[in-house]
Each structure stands twice: as C-alpha cells, then as structure tokens.
C-alpha cells in the first residue's frame, strides 16, 4: 500500500457522475486531490477521461451541492459493488468544496 500525499477523509455524501452512472453513488472518501465513489450499478466510465461529479454533502455539513471535474483513474468490482477512483482536477464552486473538506477534517478530529 502506498502513502497518500493528501489524507482521504471518510464521507457520507452522495455523488452523481454525469453520463456515467444511473442515479447517485456513495462518496466513500475525498481529499483536495481525489476521491473514491461506490455504486451498486455498473460504472460506465473510461479510465483517463474527465467527468463532472456533483457532490451532495450530508445535511450535518451545512454545505451546499458542488461540482468537481475529475479524471477517472481506476474502476474495481468489490463485493458486488463498483468502486471508482478519481483525481480531482478543478472545482468550480471551490468554497463549497473547501468547506466540505474542512468539515470532514474537523469531524475526523472530533471522532478520534
């Protein structure tokens, strides 16, 4: 296993990958540089392509929906669920993205 430059934070948000998934996926984790999504249905993306992902944070975060543009890095099938890893390239609503990552970091500290 490799050590990440930016620690991934566990999330309880949902996400929609435009033109790739049928319905929402579960955002398993996120950092300022990447994220991992899980979906019960097939993820029809192409590794190396970029996609718009709409993140829908959990209500407790008090953060609005935001989009990120991310490159699909890998797809894996794990226990009848599809997982996909993305490298985040940009976030047009950067303040919501930053606020959400800050919320997750704070929650992580509070739980430990």
Short description:
The protein is built from one helix and six strands; from the N terminus they run ββββββα.
Structure overview:
The protein is globular and about 35 Å long. A 6-stranded antiparallel beta barrel has the order 1-2-3-6-5-4. The model has no long low-confidence stretch (mean pLDDT 88). The protein has 112 residues and is α+β, with helices and mostly antiparallel strands. It contains 1 helix and 6 strands; from the N terminus they run E-E-E-E-E-E-H. Helices cover 16% and strands 46% of the residues.
Which descriptors apply to this entry?
112 residues, 6-stranded antiparallel beta barrel, 6 strands
Summarize the amount of helix as a percent range: 10-25%
Task: Flag low-confidence runs.
Answer: none
Largest sheet: 6 strands, antiparallel, barrel
Number of helices: 1
Number of strands: 6
- Structural class call reads alpha+beta
Please outline the helices and strands.
Layout: E1 9-17, E2 25-30, E3 34-39, E4 50-56, E5 66-78, E6 81-90, H1 94-111
Antiparallel strand pairs: 1-2, 1-4, 2-3, 3-6, 4-5, 5-6
């Amino acid at each position: 296993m490799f050590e990440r430059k930016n620690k991934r934070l566990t999330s309880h948000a949902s996400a929609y990958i435009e033109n790739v998934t049928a319905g929402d996926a579960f955002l398993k984790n996120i950092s300022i540089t990447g994220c991992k999504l899980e979906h019960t249905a097939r993820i029809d993306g192409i590794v190396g392509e970029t996609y718009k992902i709409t993140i829908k944070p959990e209500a407790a975060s008090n953060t609005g929906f935001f989009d990120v543009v991310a490159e699909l890095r890998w797809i894996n099938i794990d226990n009848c669920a599809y997982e996909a890893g993305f490298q985040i390239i940009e976030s047009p609503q950067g303040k919501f993205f930053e606020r959400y990552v800050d919320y997750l970091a704070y929650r992580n500290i509070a739980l430990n």
